[in-house]
Amino acid sequence: MSDETGPARPDASGTAATAAETAPPETASTKTAPATGAGLTRRALLVGVGAAGGAGAMFAAMGALGLAPESQDRDFTPPRHSDFSLTGRGAAKVVVLGAGVAGLTCAYELGKAGYDCTVLEASGRVGGRNLTLRAGDRLDELGGETQTAAFEEGIYFNAGAARIAAWMVTMDYCRELGVPVEIFVNNNASAYVYTQDMSAPLRARAARADLYGYVAELLAKASNTGALDRRLTADDRERLAEFLRRFGDLGPDLAYRRDSRRRGFETYPGVGEGVSVGTASSLRDVLAANTGRYVTMDFGYDQVMPMFQPVGGMDTITDALADAVGRDRIRTGTPVTGVRNLPDGVEVTHRGGTGEGVVRADYCVATLPPHLFARLPHNLGTPVTAALRTPVPVSAGKIGLEYGRRWWEIDDRIYGGASETDLDITHIWYPSHGFHSRGGLVVGYYNVEENAEAYTGLSHRERRNRALTQGKKIHGEKYRAELRSSVSIAWRRQPYIEGGWASWPSFDAAFDLLQRPAGRVYFAGDWLTHLTAWQAGAMESARRAVTDLHRRVLQATS
Ligand code: PHE
């Protein structure tokens, strides 16, 4: 594993945990709460701020002081209509490039204040990498074939974004937009762990019990024989031993109970005492199985339970955003061909509709993937182009496998969660919804980088066959035999997206440069945050762009 500072990879949450531990807390915080010093009442402060900065600044200050009514819980004050209507100023015209999560969030927040937004979207649909496929949906690939989802009614496949951590701003938007959410099971003891160093898959509960058990045993014994006396007092040692006995299920001799009930049962206890799955392998064999990476997947601050998903499909979020923006403001099938700063505005040229067109506006927010913007003709300067070229597009892929029978629930007692493996499929995800319904959809791979690239160049049929061959090693023949239909996505081959996400080799001056507008062009996207590959990143970045733009407009017209 590399020490990359970019986003953690889905198959390397160890990296995520490390990044989380080393990241300075709340670096991106926009907390601006002024200290109310002695003799200055909050009211007086607000009146002063209002006189100097107008209603927008006053509302911002009120928000910072926790006085403004806000539907969103977080440290952000969206621009308000009153910023203009109370002051006689007019809102500006903004052209937003891209109707993904960042673009829609920008247009939504600007729309609250009455900004006149037009969203230009290159593809035929809104949502970007928030993509849910259902029966009849078509999926086109660059230089590839077109697939059509042949799922049964009610089955869906979140081909892009699929999980939300509780702390993410995505949850606030779900609340505000009335998008119902349900639990996304990101950790399931009944799912499997399988590495090529193992003779057969093991339930995650057994793989965890063995690793935790032996680690606890080693530490308890080392501590008991005095090896840690330089670090531990007698009291420390006692407390540590008390914890390790629980953590590892150790016996009185401080050895891992190799027949620990935590490993699970072939037949679970009932009237009878149950039949255990058997005893753990030796420490050496457990280490040789190399399961460590796969039993710590959910340890990171962004992967830990509970996680969430919108009921009915992830695109419920982007659909709600698009409705709130106003569908008439969003022009799909309109790829941008050039962006120019003018002395008093911006000019965006595009294809689509009736052919070449031009949109002029006061400001632009560009949310295209950086590697695609870098290819556009523009007059924003070479440092901007160089900066846009710095984040590296990362391959990511998924396959949705539809089954007519929920065998993972019926045969395996797996309700949501994922099996983890070092095979090139990396994960098998089981649905977190529709339990006990008739059919369902399993994600047969969700892989990145080399593993994703191995599938990207294949036809859908080849991807499916390869995924089935791999998955069979965990689930047996039914995995192939019972398949109903399938759809696969290779994000590098998605038109106008061309990547799962884009990752900064380091958060350097190029990252800082693009946080600021280039003339009248602002940038936004998950790639401009420390939440790369999360919708929350796109939303946080959109809010930053909107805040900066709005502040500037209020200043310019004061
Ligand atoms: N958000 C994506 C996921 O949850 C990609 C990602 C994985 C980003 C792990 C950061 C950490 O799978």
UniProtKB/TrEMBL annotation:
Query: Quick check: keyword Acetylation in the entry?
Result: no
Transmembrane stretches in the record are: 44-68
Q: Which residues form the Amine oxidase domain?
A: 101-549
Q: Which UniProt keywords apply?
A: Membrane, Transmembrane, Transmembrane helix
Q: Where is this region: Disordered?
A: 1-36
Question: SUPFAM superfamilies recorded for this chain?
Answer: FAD-linked reductases, C-terminal domain, FAD/NAD(P)-binding domain
Q: Which domain of life is it from?
A: Bacteria
Q: Does the keyword Membrane apply?
A: yes
The record, for Pfam families, names: Amino_oxidase
Which segments show compositional bias classed as Low complexity? 12-36
Q: What is this protein called?
A: Flavin monoamine oxidase family protein
